[in-house]
Amino acid sequence: MIVSRESYDIIVVGGGHAGIEAALAASRLGKATLLITMKTAALARASCNPAIGGLAKGHLVREIDALGGEMAKATDHTGIQFKMLNRSKGRAVWSPRAQIDKNAYSSYMVAVCTNQPGLDIFEDEATAIVANKSGKEITSVKTRGGSTFNCQALILTNGTFLNGLIHIGSKSFSAGRIGESASVGITESLVELGFETGRLKTGTPPRVKRDSIDFSKTTIQAGDINPEPFSFFTQDFDPPNEYCYITNTNAETHRIINGGIKFSPLFTGVIQGVGPRYCPSIEDKVVRFSDKPSHQLFLEPEWSNADQIYVNGFSSSLPEEIQLNSLRTVPGLENVEFIKPGYAIEYDFFPPSQLKATMETKRVKGLFFAGQINGTSGYEEAAAQGLMAGINACLGIDKAEPFVLKRSEAYIGVLIDDLITKDTDEPYRMFTSRAEHRLLLRYDNAHFRLAEKGYHLGLTKESFHKDVENQKALAQKTEAFFETTYIKSDIINDLVETQTTVKESQSLSNILKRPGVSVEDIRTLLPDWVKALPSALLTLIATNTKYSGYIERERQQVERLSKHQQMPIPDSIDYLSMQAVSFEARQKLDKIRPETIGQASRISGVSPADVSLLIILIKKFVSRETR
Amino acid sequence: MLPFVEDTIVAISTPPGIGGLAVVRISGPLALATINQYFTSTQILKPRYATFGKLNHPSLSEGEFDDCVVTYFKGPHSVTGEDLVEVSIHGGAYLQQKLLEVLLRAPGLRSASAGEFTFRSFLSGRIDLSRAEAVADLIHAKDAAAHKNARNQLLGNLRLLVESISDKLIHSLTILEAELDFSDQEIDFSPPQTLLEPLSKIQATTEALLDTFFYGRRLEEGIRVPLVGAPNSGKSSLFNLLLGEDRAIVTAQAGTTRDTIEKTIVIAGHSVVLVDTAGLRETKSEAELSGVDRSLGEIDSADLVILVYAPDTETSLPDDLIHTPQITVYNKVDLVSEAPNNMDVSLSCTTGKGLETLKELIYKQVINMVNDGVGGVVLNSERHRDVFIRFKDQISISIASIQNELGPEYVASDLRLALDILGEITGQTTPDDILNQIFSGFCVGK
Lengths: 627, 446
Known about the structure:
The complex is a heterodimer.
Chain A: E1 7-13, H1 17-28, E2 33-37, E3 51-53, H2 57-66, H3 71-78, E4 79-85, E5 95-100, H4 102-114, E6 119-123, E7 126-131, E8 138-143, E9 148-156, E10 165-168, E11 171-174, H5 186-192, E12 198-204, E13 207-209, E14 219-221, E15 244-248, H6 251-260, H7 265-268, H8 282-288, E16 296-301, E17 308-312, H9 320-327, E18 338-340, E19 343-349, E20 367-369, H10 379-397, H11 411-421, H12 446-457, H13 462-484, E21 486-487, H14 489-495, E22 506-507, H15 508-513, H16 528-531, H17 535-565, H18 583-592, H19 597-601, H20 608-626
Helix pairs in contact in A: 1-10, 2-10, 2-12, 3-4, 6-9, 12-13, 13-17
Chain B: E1 8-12, E2 21-27, H1 31-38, E3 39-40, E4 49-55, E5 67-73, E6 84-90, H2 93-105, E7 109-111, H3 116-123, H4 129-140, H5 144-154, H6 157-181, H7 196-221, E8 223-229, H8 235-243, E9 261-267, E10 270-276, H9 286-300, E11 305-309, E12 326-330, E13 345-346, H10 355-369, H11 382-403, H12 408-423, H13 431-441
Parallel strand pairs in B: 1-7, 8-10, 8-11, 11-12, 12-13
Antiparallel strand pairs in B: 1-2, 2-6, 3-4, 4-5, 5-6, 9-10
């Protein structure tokens, strides 16, 4: 490893999905950056399922891409099956997902990182973080190998490694991921600085041998025939379309699992950490939904032509023997052989209410957290935080305005705002239902929403910015054309088959708004200049038109809300003395110390009445301070 | 930093006029210190105790203030959440005014603006918005029924109703959201069409609730019952008889009553506003003409009309009267040998004959107007009505979206807006509430 210096602008600890985006953003913004990882070859390792994207997560990846992050490009380069989810529904909730070749994905990221100017990689384990005397500002980081590196900003992305503890049945042992050692020391030095810590749990299913599976008893699941790339920058996209396979558990599987429950650390109380409800273990599903006779399992290749298969849906911490015996009752898996059993892992996290919207800790200047250390789950959630932490670490050093995305601008904004205002009691995952302005935040308009910001930050090229600006202008022109161009009723009735016929001529936009009508259906009505638009752009425009009433309504809501949302709360405000605010709200506000009224309003336990009051008290406070 | 110091406010909190007792309230950090300057007693003021003593002040002549009772509530354990002092004095207008003047001269005190005590209760988190509004109603309640309604709201019936509606709505939303967020999983999703039934029920409940508003307003303002008829049919006499006092001027001259006179009586626990009106006839007198106009206006806004007929008078009544409940009275029955049989009641103001029958008829009509409300809630605030109207419209939009097969993301957007509107009454629904529902209802997770 080439380590050129003892002092860096920015140091990133951890080379997972968060760490990579943070390190790349920092170095691309011109900061001398060091990435400390235990193993360079394990950079960007997909430690759980071999897939990127999915519902709401696909949105995050597109946003990362529009801001100049790496995840979408890596996915396009190494994906082996691409699929658009929710295709039967409206565009706002479509979301891309890809099966990736885990090994290729990791290698791609290793290559990008090692070739990135300004980024050094150091193989070691960070064991302590050091702040200045007052404990209010970061100064350096120490490693197990005895090195000390000074820095202006430190981004911790330790994933599940902090005091990681793996459980398989009644066995438990210290590890960060299976086969990799845990990281000890960081939690302790953070607690010493006054940070609050907690424990979470997650799990992963067994990996099995491909040639031990009888695929003839399963259902093939293929990707899209005309797949769309994740990245706005990908050209000539022609990825492979490898199969996944679906099979199902049955009564016998459930009987064996029920018989093994008494050995599951989840049920014996050995596991203290809280696991995610949206990603339950198979034993959880069998116990909690005992009326369901069967659960789906997805057999996913871990890399191209993989001899190793990931059994999605069968996450478990049961003893290996019970995992194996129950799995062997499943059609196609009668003779299945394990490469690795499923396991549960417990790890330390730091409740993210200790962070500002920049991902910097409120307690220590220059110290940032991103990824699972904040109690999130998912590669995409981690990458988004890493990118934002990397950007804000740079802006912090430059004493520039922080970069914070609003809830109405991006899923990334929803993600971070949720993290800093909510009490996480389970690993946090992104869902489209978390975004109250879902119809504004579509996967297909991420560049319209964010490209300009990425360019001004310095993370994307001017050509991309200009291209997006041109597309915006074209979109505006086309939408106006749709509004003002009327088509005679008989032509419409001939062309569009819907239940009701129209009696009067209609504008193109009204035709598009009819349920089930797509821009393809009315293609013959369009002039050549519209037909000549790139198909992705034309679809985006048609979607804008289709949703226009709803989009306008959501925009108005955003405006109405933003009146107080952005109202800053003075730093020095004394919540505890606010006799008028409910006791619970006072405690919560004092602990979280929100930066804006919007954040305050989303803290659980703070009622609308508390917020109205807070607004009044702040106005009073501010006017008194300035008097 | 400066602490949050509220101003100390003072107001007479009993209604204006002469009563047995008057209560002056002081709320804020200076409440106790201020009253201690003027109050002398053998005991010191203790929180939540009423203390007997005398009020005095150098600027007052000897004996101007006499005995009083001061009750002290220490913040935050008071209705405003601040230090609060209630001074009960004898109810003369002069004394009340004098005490207020003295207190307003004390440093740091100011006169409370309308509703400020309740506003502070709301700010202190002691009551939510719907309760704050109910307190105002309770204070203004004129009779038993209005009192009961305000009390129900104060007890949180409105809140319970809103919560039950929003629970149902969240349940519907959950079905849509589960499909949007977990469509890649093997959940049996219900199509949006299955929401039509629960949404229609919510709509019906809302309509029923909006229907209570008419009655709610009547509770607030009283049931308006004008006495209408030809000049000299004896309306004013009947008015006085029903009131049991000589309120209206009665002469033998037709057209004596030029202006409407009203007075509230309580029937079956409800305030009933009896209105004496000018007799209806064609006239050239400008004063009488405008009296007739007012009578017509009264008929317009009436809840129940008492039509008064008498021998030798001719009455031509407006057609639109038919839509209002009415009681027909044949007055001056003592002057004729036989009363017509098409009247509800024959009556004589001179002998009092038929009066009890009339009172009973009015009682029955009032009881008819009683609306038990929806879940114990009768709408009486314009704000709540406005919220429920917008809510109902938004539910209609959601239903239309489902019928037009607009897809779950549209319907979800419609329903979320409906929830937001409902949240204006008690509080907001967060995405977490919806996700929690999904997780408890569906087996999700690959």
